[in-house]
Design goal:
349 residues; mainly alpha; two-stranded antiparallel sheet; 2 strands
Length: 349
């Protein structure tokens, strides 16, 4: 391949692979959630659709596809139809800047394992696009013509605004420490030499603030106040059914995968392992192994998402706001000041 096709075709192939991996991950994360919850509650989970219930996500997808799609009479139809797309698509396009491995060499040609490998502002892009999903929540609640949906949308908007501050300051402390917005450089700064450790150790305070905040950003228990079934029926997606409801569902789990990738890149060394160099395995197998390691770390983070959901009860709304503004935000500011002071004392510009 020469010319523009040498760029377009590999990028197109990587886009298809990532979409397939993410959507498959979304489907089987729903199954994992049901299996893990069954294990924690000492009961059997889905086990009828296929061996060990592995075809349950397929059955769920078929059910949603054939389910009746109802539009409320009081809904504002254009926005009502657009809102699920605004929730799902941002969660998918965030993977454009997420590197999921080192690189692979095929037929003498080296391909970086990222859709947009040369984007030095990957963190800025990821923060900007991931924050757009709240527009889908807000518009869904407003356009549904339901008081329950509107209440859930207002909760979602205020929750995202509150916890974005903690996320931003935690990320800025890492950026200040490394001096870059590039994910590859941040991963490289966590491995490869004496004294270089995964950032969750030296930046433990930022790690705690960031981790708690992404639970709130993804509307997961104990922060699922925008849905709050025991209070406001189903929140912002109360009036949705069929495939549109499934889009909200897929958007939530895709956001979980994106958030897990973010945590892995910032605090757990990305695709690297201690004392392992992928050059030992060759240019092809080393790249594939790095990708397996990266997605394995994401799987561990997803398990923690599920574990927390079935362990902790839902917060009250005043507790949610208190935690965000009076606990996490001051901790994030303190962490940022400590990092800046440490770098100043060391003579870093």
């Amino acid at each position: 391949m020469t010319g523009i096709w040498a760029i377009v075709i590999p990028a197109f192939v990587k886009i298809l692979v990532i979409i397939a991996v993410v959507m498959t991950g979304v489907a089987y994360t729903t199954l994992a959630e049901r299996k893990v919850s069954a294990w924690m509650q000492d009961r059997k989970g889905p086990n009828r659709a296929g061996p060990f219930g592995l075809l349950q996500p397929v059955a769920d997808g078929i059910k949603f596809f054939f389910k009746e799609d109802i539009t409320p009479k009081e809904a504002y139809r254009p926005i009502y139809l657009l809102a699920p797309l605004l929730t799902l698509f941002p969660a998918l396009i965030t993977f454009a800047v997420i590197p999921f491995g080192t690189s692979v060499t095929v037929a003498g040609q080296t391909y970086p394992l990222a859709i947009a490998p040369g984007m030095n502002l990957g963190i800025v892009y990821l923060l900007a696009i991931s924050s757009m999903s709240v527009y889908g929540i807000l518009l869904a609640g407003w356009s549904s013509g339901s008081k329950y949906s509107l209440m859930g949308a207002l909760r979602g908007a205020s929750q995202v605004i509150s916890y974005e501050l903690g996320i931003g300051l935690a990320v800025l402390s890492i950026v200040l420490w490394t001096g870059t917005f590039d994910f590859n450089a941040i991963v490289a700064d966590q491995t490869g030499g004496w004294g270089k450790v995964w950032f969750f150790i030296p930046h433990f305070l930022a790690f705690v603030v960031f981790t708690v905040s992404i639970f709130a950003e993804t509307n997961r228990l104990p922060f699922d106040l925008p849905e709050g079934e025991s209070e406001i029926v189903g929140g912002y997606h109360t009036e949705y059914s069929g495939l549109r409801f499934a889009m909200f569902f897929m958007g939530e789990y895709a956001n979980m995968i994106t958030a897990s990738a973010f945590v892995v890149l910032l605090f757990f060394g990305g695709w690297n392992l201690p004392f392992v160099r992928y050059e030992w395995f060759g240019p092809l197998w080393g790249g594939l192994l790095s990708m397996v390691v990266f997605f394995s770390k994401i799987a561990v983070c997803l398990f923690i998402f599920i574990w927390v959901r079935w362990t902790l009860p839902r917060f009250r709304y005043d507790q949610l706001m208190t935690l965000g503004w009076r606990r996490l935000f001051p901790l994030a500011v303190l962490n940022f000041v400590l990092v800046a002071t440490w770098l100043l004392l060391r003579g870093r510009p």
